[in-house]
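Lay summary. Proteins are chains of building blocks that fold into shapes, and those shapes determine what they do. In this project we predict the shape from the chain. Here is one chain we studied, written as its sequence of building blocks.
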Amino acid sequence: MENYIQAEDYELWMLIKNGPLIPKKTKEHGATIIKKPEEFDTEDYKMMEKNAKAKKLLHFGLGPDEYSRISKCESAKDIWDVLQVAHEGTNQVKQSRIEFLVRKYELFEMGVVLKCNRKCTVPVVASNDKYGSYPQGTCLRIPELVSDSI
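And here is the predicted shape, written in a compact code that computers can read:
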């Protein structure tokens, strides 16, 4: 979706990523305040139109199930943040997934099926698996690997 939005209008993508453009004005003593809609000029309306287009682009790219998640969001950035957490998880969840996959990769061993001369349920596949270390030719009955049909 990110690539699609960037291809459609990169400025819209920046609005989604960084938040909406808000028309502001500077008071006499230097303070910046948000303009009221009655004070908007042509440039402000263009800004608000860009914000609306960014929201529309996200709304039209989603199905009805996703819409219920984002229906209360007020800006395109809010919508994007909700979708990101829903589909990718928080940074903590992502880090946990990465650690899990790295650990799984580190433990990965190419299994070699060892021949067993006896009739048995399951010959040992690897010498170091979650069931312990076994010498070649050992036969095991591992419940999650064996169906009743064998």
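What the prediction tells us: Residues 109-128, 141-150 have pLDDT under 50 and may be disordered.
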